[in-house]
Amino acid sequence: MTEVTATETRQGIGVSPGSAYGPVVQVSPPVRPPADEPPAQDREAALTDVKAAFESVAVALEGKARHADDTAQQILKATALIARDKGLVKAAGKQLDAGRGRANAIANAVEEYCAQFEALGGYFAERVTDLRDVGSRAVAAVLGVPAPGVPDFTEPSVIVAEDLAPAETATLDRALVVGIVTQEGGRTSHTAILAAQMGIPAVVQLKGATGIPAGTFVALDGDSGEVTINPDPSIVEEQKQRRDKRAAALAGTSGPGTTRDGHHVALLANIGGVKDAEEAGALDLEGVGLFRTEFVFLSADKAPTVEEQTEIYRKVMAPFGDRRVVVRTLDAGADKPLAFADLGPEENPALGRRGLRLSAERPELLDAQLEALSIAAKVTGADVRVMAPMVATVEEAAWFARRVRENGLPKGGVMIEVPAAALRSAHVLAEVEFGSIGTNDLAQYTMAADRMQGELSDLLDPWQPAVLDVVAAACEGAASTGRPMGVCGESAGDPLLALVLTGLGVSSLSMAPSKVPVVRLALSLHSLPECQGIAAAARAAATAREALEAVRELARDELTDLL
Ligand code: PEP
Ligand code: MG
What we know:
Layout: E1 8-11, E2 13-16, E3 19-26, H1 43-66, H2 70-83, H3 86-97, H4 102-120, H5 122-126, H6 128-143, E4 157-161, H7 166-170, E5 177-182, H8 190-198, E6 202-204, E7 217-221, E8 226-229, H9 233-251, E9 266-271, H10 274-281, E10 287-292, H11 306-317, E11 324-328, H12 356-361, H13 363-380, E12 383-388, H14 394-406, E13 411-416, H15 419-423, H16 425-429, E14 434-437, H17 439-447, H18 465-481, E15 485-487, H19 495-504, E16 508-511, H20 516-524, H21 528-540, H22 544-554, H23 557-560
Parallel strand pairs: 3-4, 4-5, 5-6, 9-10, 9-16, 10-11, 11-12, 12-13, 13-14, 14-15, 15-16
Antiparallel strand pairs: 1-8, 2-6, 3-7, 7-8
Helix pairs in contact: 1-2, 1-3, 1-4, 1-6, 2-6, 3-4, 4-6, 10-11, 11-13, 17-18, 19-20, 19-21, 21-22
């Protein structure tokens, strides 16, 4: 651990806007069993302790779930179920018989399970992280040491971790967590997406973050990615002034997204469940551009019934009145495994049967979802539009559009997140009513770089000129058909990229609601021809860094001064 006492500024990647200042709370690393633990003397007493340890983990997770929102609740309850698995206690019992101590019996039993899960692949393999988390918590409980993960704290603080599991991020108390810093993680990892969704300023990929001692004060800037350790009071004051200046500038903007010369670009919210919908529905934005439906079912063991789904969709749509709600059908597979939609192990899940490919193999899942959406749309009178994830070909788009129509839904669209669909967007969009570019996956597939790998964040930089070219191709194709093309990946919420995307011709930008005000301001300060010039300059650049610099140069100071 490197002690830091002097003021020091480090550069990470800003993924959730805003600035924060507070003491560091370090997320405790996993607890390992002692190598020299003696064998348990009294087998029955040891087994009782092991059982109690797993049970205390389940109870603690369920307790957290009670205070969490929908997505987090699902994840936490699913993890609590793992802790209650009787097989784990049985396996630990065998380890005790083999002469292990309590903590090692738990750890070995969990590792045995992990090996089995990994061999099963697919959904089960994705659960290995949760299983290890349960194991580490149970080891801590049986040893009587603090549980790994986010410790209890009462003062507004900055959470610092090597990385945060989506479940950990989703369960953070928004009132107490003023900022998040991680050493790993990527721009489009689900931690980054959830932090922005929760409106907590966040920086990822900060070198040496876990070495910052707990209690050290840090100032972070979720836009620039700068983190200052032991900041001088003048830095904190400067940051506060910037925050106030930004708040004042943003307070002056409202209403639909429009460029300075009156060109409309709809500003929409990305949401993941009922709670998000209730919050976003109360805000000044034009509706929902991406409802990630799979987030609602992350921990469901059985496919949700039409009735269950209808109830959830009704609650999601209601807060938006007659505003649009764009719903994405289940994007299961790869980084978002669903137990009831698992097709078994795959060598390379991100390139496998995920998204619409999975729907094609399990059409009954898609039909149930479309039926529920259709009923909820009728009941609420919402302007519901449904789009498919991971579309690559014209045939897939046509197949989806037919099913949407057959279920009585008025508008079907496709996500453009596979380069094949982007390059052929004119033909793909001819089959549907609209397109929405998912820049997170589009960057992943264009650059052949796994979006979950923080180390590859330079390749995944949305300013990569090749990614901008593929986005431009998708927009040109859409323009030739007259069909609207929006963006709902993380790029949409970056004010400078929003100018580029507007210049490329997108008709809507969908993002975490916390990002809407600054994007609205960015648009209002630039005319459409200026945005077109900005887009051309970005595409003319040779590298991602040069593209960003070129746009910074051209954007108005009133905007760049706030970033
Ligand atoms: C995307 O890929 O850009 C997108 C919006 O979908 P997700 O992040 O859920 O994969
Ligand atoms: Mg995607």
